[in-house]
Amino acid sequence: MAKRSVLGLYIEEDSAADALDHLRDAGFEDHEYEILTGTPYPEGTFGEAEPQHHLYRWPIFGALTGFTISLFYTSITQAAYPLLTGGKPVLAIPAMLVILYELTMLGAVIFTIIGIIFESRLPRFFMGAYSEKITEGYIGVTVTTDEDRTDKAEEALKKAGIDGEIIRGWE
Amino acid sequence: MATRTFDDKYPGQPFVQTDNSLESRKELSDKFLGIYNDTGSQRFWQISVIFGVLFGIGLLGYFWKIFATKDPGDFGYYAALFSFLMTTSAGAPMVAIGPRIANAHWRRSISRVAEIWTLIGTVNLIVFLPLLWVMPSLDNGRRSLVFYWEAKGDWWFPFLIKFSGHIWTTVSIITLIVLGIVLLWVSVMPDLALIRDNAPDGWRKKWASRLSRGWIGSSWQWNWQRHRMGTLGALYFMMLVLTHFFISTEFLMVHVPGWIDSLYPITHAHNALQGGVATVMLTMFVVSRIGPYRHYISLDQFHGLGKLLLALSLLWFWFWFCSFMIFWYGKKPSEQAILKLFVHGPYFPVFLAEFFFVFFIPWWTMVWNPVRRSVWGPAIIAISVLIGTFLDRVRMYVSTWDVAGISADKLAANGGQFSDEYPRNMMLNMTILDDPAFDRIMIIKNFEGLPVPTSAVLPTAIDGVIILGFVSGAVFLYMMASRLIPVINIWEQKELLLYNAEVQFHRAKVKVMGKPR
């Protein structure tokens, strides 16, 4: 079924927070509504769900990959050209530490960049229901849901006391 | 209506109400948009035209230099200009990145002032490209950070090996520039959305719409913007250090036989931080005192950045002295020659002037509270630091390229013999190496001693034109960018409304600042 989005504008933060309460009471899921603001509010100001991401996994995975590659690389090269230096073992950990550290860090950094690109998803081409008043300072609550549930969403938004009319759009 | 208040959540705890009403938010947006929509005073355009014309003349000098100069040694001032631009403009964004990571509120009104300098990377790139042609490949026996061997295989493999120094440096510089521009774009996107939504029709609204495509200000977007800016900022810092590492080794240290100093690359990077702070200090002075942002860039910003400038100026001495005393106490012939070349030889007056401008003046002025806690004081000191930084680049690069740069013509004129006057070989044309008279052993022998030039190289008229032209070009590009990009970060200013309150504390009024996270 086609998705439609509706937007209610609020002047006060508390009204926007109430709108989210009403939406939850009306059976809407966290992923169906969003808060739109012209400035970043501290997370949880409106009682919204904290945005979920898995960015932290990327540097860990990258660091492990970098460490593995560096361990393999330094071990193999030393084993391939076994030069005894100063009576030290061929596979000497202190001599490998710098490369182990650097490739571990490099892996973490590269994977973090990839993670950011991947987790950011694609740019948003369709803005859905939107109002230019958001950047002026109004607080918007937008609901993107199935077409047959938009009435219910509008009702929940209105209950919190919207400023002006409901704005409709599509995804 | 179920309205939750602070008391419901934290009963009995005192709290300060900030003025974050719709009216305040709107008033702030309108004020900034009003300044932004003003197309600039007549004086702004007059100054722009002057800088633009100087840039045009500088470009003519640039092409003249490329096509008419054969001797790489004559590129000393040119290399100094490149390094100066990399030191000042590329270091400036760190003023936005560092305090933002530390959540310092004072940075809010100057973070964009600093970030716009990332665009000047494009000018740096124009200056950098000819140096790739001037710099010899590794197969002429020059020193390098990068390993070299006579690789066999398809054409591209020996090419990669021969030019690996060039390739790494280019990749590093381009990555730094791209990172900087992306950082600026991510930072400016919410403000472009504001312009898209509220500015009158015109080319700026059109560009703002294109560049802010998809920005609606959802909490998800804000959350990701914070992550992106943090990561990009950290990466920018890492790339800045790496780029200065490459520049200071491939374009400087390797060309002076006997110059072995593990501290110098990070000294070069430190100079970029100091130069960057001075650049932002001067820019914010111009933007606030000559431009229209006096109300937003106040003593707080000058004081905050002034302390940083003082610390970095003291650090300049630490870096310089650490390197100096190694050579001083080492006293090997090559180390004495290095000191003579860079400190007490033909460039002694430049060194003295630099020492005075970049360390002594900032130190002896900024230690005094009245100077540090003023607007004029730090701005004047910033000019002193920038002059000192430029002199430093001249001293290091011109002397180095003089030592290293000897053309085939000059050598041939000397009967193909190295001598006291022509002892250098780092910039030799590769074809000379085909001549058995110039085998590598001879070159390496000449590395052992470093006869220091007896006189300093003075800039030619073309050098002067290029230096003036490209510094003007950087300012011109900045001024043009300020027509599209708001010079003050509007969304960060609006965010401050959430965290800033003035309250009565006994008999005094105090400012209470919150921390977002």
Structure commentary:
The complex is a heterodimer of chains A (about 170) and B (about 525). Chain A is built from five helices and four strands. Chain A has helices at about 15-25, 55-80, 95-120, 135, 150-160, and strands spanning about 5-10, 35, 140-145, 165-170. The longest helix of chain A is centred in the middle third of the chain and has 28 residues, at about 95-120. In chain A, about 35% of the residues are buried. Chain B is an all-alpha fold. Chain B has 21 helices and two strands. Chain B has helices at about 5-10, 20-35, 40-70, 75-90, 95-100, 110-115, 120-135, 155-160, 165-200, 205-210, 220-250, 265-290, 300-330, 335-345, 350-365, 370, 375-405, 410-415, 440-445, 460-485, 490-500; strands at about 500-505, 510-515. A two-stranded antiparallel sheet of chain B has the order 1-2. In chain B, a hairpin with a 2-residue loop joins β1 and β2 (about 510-515). Chain B is globular and about 75 Å long. The chains are: A alpha+beta (about 170), B mainly alpha (about 525).
Would you spell out the secondary-structure blueprint of this structure?
The complex is a heterodimer of chains A (171) and B (517).
Chain A: E1 3-10, H1 13-25, E2 33-36, H2 57-80, H3 93-120, H4 133-136, E3 139-146, H5 150-159, E4 167-170
Antiparallel strand pairs in A: 1-3, 1-4, 2-3
Chain B: H1 6-9, H2 22-37, H3 42-68, H4 76-88, H5 94-101, H6 111-115, H7 121-134, H8 156-162, H9 164-198, H10 203-211, H11 219-250, H12 264-290, H13 299-330, H14 333-344, H15 348-366, H16 369-372, H17 376-404, H18 408-413, H19 440-447, H20 461-484, H21 490-499, E1 500-505, E2 508-513
Antiparallel strand pairs in B: 1-2
Helix pairs in contact in B: 2-21, 3-20, 4-7, 4-17, 4-20, 5-11, 7-9, 9-10, 9-11, 11-12, 12-13, 12-17, 13-14, 13-15, 13-17, 15-17
